[in-house]
Design a protein that fits this description.
The complex is a heterodimer of chains A (320) and B (246).
Chain A: E1 4-7, H1 21-29, E2 33-39, H2 43-47, E3 56-61, H3 70-84, E4 88-92, H4 95-108, E5 112-116, E6 118-122, E7 125-132, E8 137-143, E9 148-152, E10 169-171, E11 183-190, E12 203-207, H5 214-228, E13 231-234, H6 236-240, E14 261-265, H7 271-274, E15 282-287, H8 294-297, E16 300-303, H9 306-319
Chain B: E1 2-6, E2 9-11, E3 28-30, H1 32-46, E4 52-59, H2 64-73, E5 77-82, H3 89-103, E6 107-111, H4 122-130, E7 134-144, E8 149-156, E9 159-166, E10 169-173, H5 185-193, E11 196-199, E12 212-218, E13 227-229, H6 232-242
Parallel strand pairs in B: 1-4, 1-6, 4-5, 5-11, 6-10, 7-10
Antiparallel strand pairs in B: 2-3, 7-8, 8-9
Helix pairs in contact in B: 2-5, 3-4
The chains are: A alpha/beta (320), B alpha/beta (246).
The complex binds flavin-adenine dinucleotide (FAD) and adenosine monophosphate.
Adenosine monophosphate (AMP) binds next to α1, β4, α3, β6 and α4 of chain B.
Chain lengths: 320, 246
Amino acid sequence: MAESLVLIEHDRQQVKRSSLHAITLAQQLGGEYELLVIGHVVNKISSSLVSLGATSVIVADDPALAEPLADRYATVIAEAVRKSGAKNILGTSSTFSKDILPRAAALLDAPMVTDVVAIEQMDGSISYRRPINAGSMFAKVKVEGERRVLTVRAAAFETPAANAAPCPIVRFDVDAESLPNGMRFISREERKSDRPDLTEARVVVSGGRPLKDKETFERLVGGLADALGGAIGATRAAVDAGMAPNDYQIGQTGKVVAPELYIALGISGAIQHLAGIKDSRIIVAINKDPDAPICQTATYFLVGDLYQIVPQLIESIRRA
Amino acid sequence: MKILVPFKSVPDPNDATFAGEAASASKSVINPFDEIAIEEALRIRERGEATEIVGVTIGAPSVDEQIRAALAMGVDRAIRIDDARALDPYAVARILRAVVEKEAPHVVIMGKQAVDDDSNQVGQILAGLLGWPQATFVSSIEFLDNKTRARCTRETDAGLEVVELDLPAIITTDLRLNEPRYVSLPGLIRARRKPIEVLTCDQVGVNVRPLTTVLAVARPPKRPAGTRVESVEELITKLKQEAKVI
Ligand SMILES: Cc1cc2nc3c(=O)[nH]c(=O)nc-3n(C[C@H](O)[C@H](O)[C@H](O)COP(=O)(O)OP(=O)(O)OC[C@H]3O[C@@H](n4cnc5c(N)ncnc54)[C@H](O)[C@@H]3O)c2cc1C
Ligand SMILES: Nc1ncnc2c1ncn2[C@@H]1O[C@H](COP(=O)(O)O)[C@@H](O)[C@H]1O
């Protein structure tokens, strides 16, 4: 019987790499673990998962599961967990797992811990560390009950090695007729970008309120990101003002990033924004105000007008 | 149409003490995402699609100030489930289910997350317990077919997604759904006459124990103070030679 079941996220073409980080928690918790893939026509996706050390890759493949509707996916997860007997139901924090896993927790009558960044094992009992209050504090929590649902912060757990002997792919039969039917997928609006995925990028360049409009944002933030081969992020203020799309938002209520290099252009450093960047290795701030809170968090800060500094920076990097 | 809006009283995220051990001692406000939920309910009523907005919060008598604020914004009446325990999302959702069963709303609109515990669970758990459809992280809501369905735009990691839900359903709000109005003086005066019903868990027929215990709370390690650089050249040199990132 598997100890843990890890929900894998994909975009219908390929596995989302960040969703593999939860496997590392399954390894730390000990015992066997299974991976669960839900979708339609996911053969290629499932076969890409066989050497991650799981005992099996469970695949629920049905036209009724083509889109990630929470009511159906949660039902499938709960059934898969009951069948496998898993005690830990794991996923990596993302809008996908945040939407679906609490619902599965309801069906399993299990408590859930969001955004686990570390575990501590003492005398056979486990506690989980997680950020609260916009990441300004960590809480150490324990949960009761036979089962628990956990999501992890990708930045806090490595990607697992993919060198295990291939495991079997097991089909999980779904009775499409019995699935809930109250939600319908209508459409999706996603931009295709040549830039790296924000949550996996080595370099992230972000812009804040003073970037003014979409064109300026793209020219300066986008220009610097491209010079460094990085991804683009934004503050809530920049997204609210329409300079950048919602999926660029970094922070307490947006994405969490932990790149090697994070560059903040015209960002004050509100705790809600810092919540999403604190684990970056090097943080650079360019701000005209030396007293902006971001300058306390940054590894290096340069005081001045970003409209003058950023073009120079792009130019110097391109020349080098 | 009747709308139920659950809301939580949280330490003010704009207060300096929010980030620290003394957070619980800072001034309380309605959780910002719940304020957005209240605002959305008011707008739905203002466009003639809702007849009643009921607010519900679970907490000690000290949350009365936030109840008054919700009523002053325009919520018609409020219920407080009198429970001073440290509840987890597991327990909150089970208490809210009992309130939903009692009130039978057509739609529940609530925040996607409480900014103090940052769990982002209750709406989804509640939907699962009730077996109702859900739309999380919503940035627009439209009712269709004589209010038997809701069409919602959701903010996801990849962009935007549109889903339709059969009602009754649970909707959780994201930041871009609206900008909440300020409480007005006439609103505050009207709020004084609006009813607040105080009920115990027993009275709504729920007996639940939280399954999560917070053992300790601590500050994360502080990042070392930053180094100020004076020019673009100096910055590039540091990034190359000291940090070795470019
Ligand atoms: C419930 C809630 C959730 C939130 N979630 C998030 C979140 O997930 N992510 C997030 O980012 N925010 C979030 N916020 C908002 C957050 O509190 C801040 O308001 C926001 O991060 C500020 O964005 P900003 O730094 O772009 O703008 P500002 O705070 O206005 O800062 C702009 C900065 O630019 C500098 N500046 C101005 N002009 C120039 C120039 N020409 N050159 C150089 N520097 C210049 C200024 O000195 C200032 O420091 C949330 C808020 C709430 C209440
Ligand atoms: N004590 C409470 N009373 C009423 N609603 C609550 C309470 N706690 C949480 N909620 C609701 O659940 C949402 C999500 O909270 P959470 O899952 O804790 O992040 C909040 O935005 C509120 O709408």
